[in-house]
C-alpha cells in the first residue's frame, strides 16, 4: 500500500520499494486468506461495513465464470454472471442470482427452478401462448402427466419409460460424461433417470411450464439420491430461445415433445446452435402416419390433428438435416418414432 508523504517525515535516503515485492515460497508472511481465517473463524458471522471493501480475487471470478458459462441470457446469448454459490444443482441455483452484463437483465430462481425465459421479470405484459402450450402449464395436467397421461402413449406404440430410456442411452453413448439438457422435460420423467444414471457430468431439466417443473421437484424430494445429487438443475426456458452459450452442450433430449412445439424449425435450429461439435440430439414423438398407414387413415389424420403438429418421418429427417445435423437415424413402432442426429 502506498503512503502519502507527511511534512513531519523526511524521506529515507537510498532505499527503494518495489510496487509488487517478491516473496519466496518459504516466506514467513502469512497470506491474506490465511490472515482472514486466523482472525475470522468460519463459524463467525461477518457483517458488511461501509468502511471495509473486499473484492474477490481475479482467479475466483474466473473460476465462477467457468462454472456458469454454459448458462446464457435468452435475449442476447451473453454468458450470465452469477452472484452466489457455484454449480448447476438445485441448492446452488436456488441461492444464486444471475445477470447479463450486455443487456443488464437479471434472472433469479423461483420454487427451486431458475427462470431463464425472455418474459422473466415482466410486470405488465403477458404473452399469449398456443393452446397446446398453455395446456401443459395447467396444474391438473402437470399432476396427471406421470399418473396416467404418459402411460397412455403405449397404445400408440411408445415402448414405455424404461425401454425409451435404454434406447436414448444407446444413442447418447458417444457423449457420455458430458452435459445433457432434457428440453420439454415435463415432470422430469427422463431427467431424473439421466441424473440417477451417473453417466453425465450435468443434467438440466428444462421446460416452459412452471407447474411441470414444480412436479419435477416434488418427485425429486421423494428420492434422497436425487435430492442430494450435485449435477441436476431445473430451468424454465423456451425451446425456441434456449438460454445456453453456442456450442456448450453435449447432448439434448426431447421425449414426446416435438409435436407440442409451436415452431419445430426454430426449436431444432436452437438445439443445433447449443450443441458442441459431435453433440447428439435424441427426440421422440407421434408420427402423423407411416408408409404402412391406410390411405383413409392418412386423410383422417390430416384433417384432425387436435391442435398438435404431428409430422411424418420424412419431415422430421428434413428438419434435422436442414438445420445442419447429420447421421440421422430412427426407430419406428406404430405411431412412435425415436430419432437421433448429430452436429458435425
TrEMBL record:
Q: What residues does the Methyltransferase type domain cover? A: 181-282
Q: Which InterPro entries match?
A: Methyltransf_11, SAM-dependent_MTases_sf
Q: Where in the cell is it found?
A: Plastid, Chloroplast, Plastoglobule
Any one GO molecular-function label of the UniProt entry: S-adenosylmethionine-dependent methyltransferase activity
**GO BP terms:** methylation
Q: Which UniProt keywords apply?
A: Chloroplast, Methyltransferase, Plastid, Transferase, Transit peptide
The record's listing under Pfam families reads: Methyltransf_11
Q: Which residues cross the membrane?
A: none
Question: Which GO cellular component terms, listed alphabetically, does the Swiss-Prot or TrEMBL entry include?
Answer: plastoglobule
Q: Is this entry keyworded Transit peptide?
A: yes
Query: According to its UniProt record, which protein family does this protein belong to?
Result: Belongs to the methyltransferase superfamily.
This chain belongs to the protein called: Methyltransferase type 11 domain-containing protein
Q: Which organism is it from?
A: Acacia crassicarpa (northern wattle)
Q: Tell me the organism's taxonomic lineage.
A: Eukaryota, Viridiplantae, Streptophyta, Embryophyta, Tracheophyta
Amino acid at each position: 500500500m502506498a503512503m502519502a508523504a507527511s511534512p513531519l517525515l523526511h524521506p529515507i535516503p537510498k532505499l527503494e520499494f518495489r510496487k509488487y515485492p517478491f516473496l519466496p515460497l518459504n516466506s514467513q508472511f502469512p497470506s491474506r486468506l490465511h490472515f482472514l481465517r486466523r482472525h475470522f473463524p468460519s463459524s463467525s458471522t461477518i457483517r458488511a461495513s461501509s468502511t471495509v471493501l473486499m473484492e474477490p480475487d481475479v482467479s475466483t471470478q474466473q473460476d465462477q465464470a467457468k462454472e456458469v458459462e454454459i448458462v446464457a441470457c435468452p435475449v442476447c446469448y451473453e454468458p450470465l454472471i452469477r452472484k452466489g454459490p457455484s454449480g448447476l444443482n438445485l441448492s446452488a441455483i436456488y441461492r444464486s442470482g444471475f445477470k447479463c452484463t450486455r443487456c443488464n437483465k437479471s434472472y433469479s430462481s423461483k420454487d427451486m427452478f431458475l427462470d431463464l425465459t425472455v418474459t422473466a421479470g415482466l410486470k405488465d405484459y403477458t404473452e399469449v401462448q398456443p393452446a397446446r402450450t398453455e395446456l401443459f402449464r395447467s396444474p391438473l395436467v402437470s399432476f396427471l402427466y406421470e399418473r396416467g397421461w404418459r402411460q397412455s402413449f403405449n397404445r400408440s406404440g411408445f415402448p414405455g419409460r424404461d425401454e425409451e430410456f435404454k434406447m436414448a442411452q444407446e444413442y447418447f453413448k458417444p457423449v457420455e460424461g458430458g452435459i445433457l439438457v432434457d428440453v420439454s422435460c415435463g415432470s422430469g420423467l427422463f431427467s431424473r433417470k439421466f441424473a440417477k444414471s451417473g453417466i453425465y457430468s450435468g443434467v438440466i431439466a428444462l421446460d416452459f411450464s412452471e407447474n411441470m417443473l414444480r412436479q419435477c421437484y416434488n418427485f425429486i424430494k421423494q428420492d434422497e439420491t436425487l435430492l442430494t445429487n450435485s449435477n441436476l438443475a431445473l430451468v424454465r426456458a423456451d425451446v425456441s430461445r434456449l438460454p445456453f452459450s453456442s456450442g456448450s452442450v453435449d447432448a439434448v433430449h426431447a421425449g414426446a415433445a416435438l409435436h407440442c412445439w409451436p415452431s419445430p424449425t426454430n426449436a431444432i435450429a436452437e438445439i443445433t446452435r447449443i450443441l458442441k461439435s459431435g453433440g447428439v440430439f435424441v427426440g421422440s414423438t407421434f408420427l402423423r402416419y407411416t408408409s404402412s398407414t391406410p390411405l383413409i387413415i392418412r386423410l383422417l389424420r390430416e384433417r384432425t390433428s387436435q391442435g398438435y403438429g404431428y409430422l411424418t418421418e420424412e419431415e422430421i429427417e428434413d428438419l434435422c438435416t436442414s438445420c445442419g445435423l447429420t447421421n440421422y437415424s430412427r426407430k419406428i413402432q406404430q405411431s412412435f418414432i425415436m430419432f437421433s442426429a448429430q452436429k458435425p
